[in-house]
Amino acid sequence: MARGHQKLQSQQKNAKKQTEMKKAKGHDQKTAAKAALVFTWLVCRTQMPDPKTFKQHFESKHPKSPLPPELEGVEA
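== Zinc finger protein 706 ==
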């Protein structure tokens, strides 16, 4: 185990390495996935990434509700 000045230098070096790794990593998957959820269905407040998935959800979960106009031309 390192003691004194060597220990302090090792801690500083490790902290610098950790911050560089964090910067290089960029954004994480969670924030990227959240940004991809573009469509929001007002009935159940579900967010969908694309119109195809939105229409599939709509047809399976809300069959009695009328089809929204933005989903009329989309193929599921």
